[in-house]
Amino acid sequence: MMKLLVILGSTATGKTDLGLMLAGKFNGELVSADSRQIYKGLDIGTGKYLSQKSKVKKQKYCWEVDGIRIWMYDMADPRRQYTVADYVKDADRIISDIAKRGKLPILVGGTGLYLKALLGGLPNLEIPIDKKLRKKLEKLSLNKLQEKLQELSHGRWQSLNESDKQNPRRLIRHIELTTMYGYMNTRKQHIGLARKFNVLKIGLSASREILYKRADERVLARIKQGMIDEAKILSLKRMRDLGLEYGVIADYLEGLPVGRQGKIKKENLTSVLQGKIHGYIRRQLTWFKKDLPAGRQERNVEWFDITTKEFPGNVEKLANAWYYHTDDSKN
């Protein structure tokens, strides 16, 4: 059975740095599992690998960092939506190709839905978008969307995590799915890579305070690097579709009020951005706790605290034992 290494965790845990280190030791190539790094031209705001100490060469669908490829960068036009189904189709193909070439695919990212769909499979990936229905639903407020989904399917509503319940785009998709079960049952489903690969999952963690501090530093660095000017290739609507930093930047550029803070101005832009990322980190932590627990069909996640001195050595030791172990019966 071919092997697949997965490095997951919330933002600011150093997943890509660890992935590059392990790729150098185990002849690997990285595959990004980030819902926004797939877009061309959005390098700073999405946190693609931009270390000044590294030699970076951009290629088709990947970047090469010091000779190691990171796939699923620059896959799509940022002005158009790239769906979870698109991601699964492309990432599945790329991971299989890496393995067939005798290299170790290393899946790295913090977008929980992408990881869950690719590894475990989701039953609704190929269900088409109902543009007419979406046009109507996009006019509704968050509260109205929540109410509508609860009316249509209380069970589906209860199954959602807090992140999904607060995400209009995902609520619209769930409403869409509840009306299309007849179509849904006729489609061939993606079964998930966990059934085809011997998977080792390494999870990176730290206290919220540490993650917040690291994320705050990243926000400051990205503003200095030109994140706001980079975002201007997008329309304000598209920025809001992408969410997080881009949603805040859209409000800033348009001069819209944000809660009790009033309009976002240059002097409070940084704090608003940092607060937004803090909320995202909390949602990521909730996702990994709920949606990737022990006992599912995927192998359990081996968690490591990134603040301990033993962290890099312990990760390498575990990966080494797994990589060179010949008995692939456990998955």
Structure write-up:
It is a single chain. This protein is of the alpha/beta class. The protein is 48% helix and 14% strand. The protein is built from 15 helices and eight strands. Helix 10 crosses helix 14 (266-291) and helix 13 (245-254) runs antiparallel to helix 14 (266-291). Mean pLDDT is 85; it is low at 182-187 and 292-299.
Summary tags:
331 residues, alpha/beta, Rossmann fold, 2 domains, eight-stranded mixed beta sheet, 15 helices, 8 strands, 14% strand
What's the main sheet like? 8 strands, mixed
Helix-strand category: alpha/beta
Kindly provide the name of the CATH class of the largest domain. Alpha Beta
CATH architectural grouping of the largest domain: 3-Layer(aba) Sandwich
End-to-end distance, in Å?
A: 10 Å
Number of helices: 15
List the strand order in the largest sheet: 3-4-5-2-6-1-7-8
Quick description:
The protein has helices at about 15-25, 85-100, 110-120, 130-135, 140-150, 155-160, 160-165, 170-180, 180-185, 210-225, 225-230, 235-240, 245-255, 265-290, 310-325, and strands spanning about 1-10, 30, 55-60, 60-65, 70, 105-110, 195-205, 300-305. It is an alpha/beta fold and about 325 residues long. An 8-stranded mixed β-sheet has the order 3-4-5-2-6-1-7-8, with helices on both faces.
What's the arrangement of secondary structure elements?
Layout: E1 2-9, H1 15-26, E2 28-32, E3 56-59, E4 62-65, E5 68-71, H2 84-100, E6 104-109, H3 112-120, H4 131-137, H5 142-152, H6 154-159, H7 162-165, H8 168-178, H9 181-184, E7 197-205, H10 208-225, H11 227-231, H12 236-242, H13 245-254, H14 266-291, E8 301-305, H15 311-323
Parallel strand pairs: 1-6, 1-7, 2-5, 2-6, 7-8
Antiparallel strand pairs: 3-4, 4-5
